[in-house]
C-alpha cells in the first residue's frame, strides 16, 4: 500500500472566500500533516492554484488570501487530484470555471490520476465530462442544479459520498472528510484510517447518508393557492389524512390536486404527506425525549415499527441513530398537542 501524491485545486487562490476554507482545509489536514507512526512516507500534498503560481495576493473582504506554489500544470503527474469547491457564481449563476481548469482536469485524468470532488467541486468534474454516465453526488442543496446542468450524470443526493473507482465525489462540508478518510482507508488500510479518525476526533464511519440532513419540510412553491391547504395538512399530521381529504379542503378534484401538488412540490400528494410526517418525526427526535412509539403517533406514521421502516428507507438511518446524531439542546418537550379544529 502506498500513499502517493495529492494535488488540491485552489480555484480562487487570490482572495479565497472564507466560507470555502472548510472544504480546502479538509484535504490539507488529512493528507498534508505527516503521520510517520501510521505510514511512512505519508502523502505528498501540493496546492495548485488556477492563477499564476506565486502571484501577488489581492485583499479579500474578510482579510484573507492564499498564494500557491503550484499551478494547474502540476495536476498532471499527481496520483490523486481533489477539487474541494468551485466559486459560488459557477454554481448559482452558471459563470464559467476558472480558465484552464477543465483542460487541466481532463489531462490529469488521462494521465491516470484518481479524480475527487468535495461539495460543489463536482461541477468542475462534470464540466470536464469526467462524471458522464457515472453515479455522483454533491451537497444536497446543489444536486438539483447539477442534474439539470449535466443530465448525463447519475446524481444521487442521498449519500455522503460515491466511490466509482477512479472518480469519487462527496456531499457537502463534513462529508468531504468522510470521503478523504475513505481514500486513506483505500490506500493505507482500515487501521491507519481508523487511527487517523481518532486523532481528528471524528467517527471513522458515519451511519446513513446525507438524506438524514435534507430538509423535508414544505418546498418553495409559486402556487399560492395551495399554501393554505398544505399548511392545514401540516397542522394535522397526527390524523389519518388522505388525498381526498386534501382535495375537499382545497375544493379541487383529486386529479387536479395531484397535478398542482406535483407541479408545485415536484412530488405526489402521498409522498408529500410522507415527507411532512418524516420532517415532523425528525423535529421531535431532535427536540424532545419522547419515546419512538409516541413520535410515530404524533407524526402520523403509526407504530414504532412503521416509523423505523420509513426512516430507514427515506432517511437512511434508524430513528435512534438519527437522535444520536442530533443531540437535543432545546428545552424538553414532553407533549406536542395537535390542532384538530376544522
What's a concise summary of this model?
With 342 residues, this protein is of the alpha/beta class. The protein has 14 helices and 9 strands.
Estimate percent helicity: 40-55%
Sheet with most strands: strand arrangement: 3-2-1-4-5-9-8
How many helical stretches?
Answer: 14
The structural domain count equals 2
Portion of residues in beta strands equals 5-15%
Low-pLDDT regions: 218-222, 329-342
The assigned CATH architecture of the largest domain is: 3-Layer(aba) Sandwich
What is the mean pLDDT?
83
GO molecular function, one term: sequence-specific DNA binding
InterPro entries: Class_I_gatase-like, DJ-1/PfpI, Homeodomain-like_sf, HTH_AraC, HTH_AraC-typ_CS, INH-QAR
Biased composition (Basic and acidic residues): 331-342
Protein name: AraC family transcriptional regulator
Structure explained in plain terms:
- The protein has 342 residues and is α/β, with parallel strands linked by helices.
- The protein has 2 domains: 5-211, Class I glutamine amidotransferase (GATase) domain (Rossmann fold), CATH 3.40.50.880; 224-325, Homeodomain-like (Arc Repressor Mutant, subunit A), CATH 1.10.10.60.
- Helix content is 40%, strand content 10%.
- It is built from 14 helices and 9 strands.
- The strands form 2 sheets. Strands 3-2-1-4-5-9-8 form a 7-stranded mixed sheet, sandwiched between helices.
- The chain starts with a strand and ends in a 17-residue tail after the last helix.
- Residues 227-325 form the HTH araC/xylS-type domain.
Amino acid at each position: 500500500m502506498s500513499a502517493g501524491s495529492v494535488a488540491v485545486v485552489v480555484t480562487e487562490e487570490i482572495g479565497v472566500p472564507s466560507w470555502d476554507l472548510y472544504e480546502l482545509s479538509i484535504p490539507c489536514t488529512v493528507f498534508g500533516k505527516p503521520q510517520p507512526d501510521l505510514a511512512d512516507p505519508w502523502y505528498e500534498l501540493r496546492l495548485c492554484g488556477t492563477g499564476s503560481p506565486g502571484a501577488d495576493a489581492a485583499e479579500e473582504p474578510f482579510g484573507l488570501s492564499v498564494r500557491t506554489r503550484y499551478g494547474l500544470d502540476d495536476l498532471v503527474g499527481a496520483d490523486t487530484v481533489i477539487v474541494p469547491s468551485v466559486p459560488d457564481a459557477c454554481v448559482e449563476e452558471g459563470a464559467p470555471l476558472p480558465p484552464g481548469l477543465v483542460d487541466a482536469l481532463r489531462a490529469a485524468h488521462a494521465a491516470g490520476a484518481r479524480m475527487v470532488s468535495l461539495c460543489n467541486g463536482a461541477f468542475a468534474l462534470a464540466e470536464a465530462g469526467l462524471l458522464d454516465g457515472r453515479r455522483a453526488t454533491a451537497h444536497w442543496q446543489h444536486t438539483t442544479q447539477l442534474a439539470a446542468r449535466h443530465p448525463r450524470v447519475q446524481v444521487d443526493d442521498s449519500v455522503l459520498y460515491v466511490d466509482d473507482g477512479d472518480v469519487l465525489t462527496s456531499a457537502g462540508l463534513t462529508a468531504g472528510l468522510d470521503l478523504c478518510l475513505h481514500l486513506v482507508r483505500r490506500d493505507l488500510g482500515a487501521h491507519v484510517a481508523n487511527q487517523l479518525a481518532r486523532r481528528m476526533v471524528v467517527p471513522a464511519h458515519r451511519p446513513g447518508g446525507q438524506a438524514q440532513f435534507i430538509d423535508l419540510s414544505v418546498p418553495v412553491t409559486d402556487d399560492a393557492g395551495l399554501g393554505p391547504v398544505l399548511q392545514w395538512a401540516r397542522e394535522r399530521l397526527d390524523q389519518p389524512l388522505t388525498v381526498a381529504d386534501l382535495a375537499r379542503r382545497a375544493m379541487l378534484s383529486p386529479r387536479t390536486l395531484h397535478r398542482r401538488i406535483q407541479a408545485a412540490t415536484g412530488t405526489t400528494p402521498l409522498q408529500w404527506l410522507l415527507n411532512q410526517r418524516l420532517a415532523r418525526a425528525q423535529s421531535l427526535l431532535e427536540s424532545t425525549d419522547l419515546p419512538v412509539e409516541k413520535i410515530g403517533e404524533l407524526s402520523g406514521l403509526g407504530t414504532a415499527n412503521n416509523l423505523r421502516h420509513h426512516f430507514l428507507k427515506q432517511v437512511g438511518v434508524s430513528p435512534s441513530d438519527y437522535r444520536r446524531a442530533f443531540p437535543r439542546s432545546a428545552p424538553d418537550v414532553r407533549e406536542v398537542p395537535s390542532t384538530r379544529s376544522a
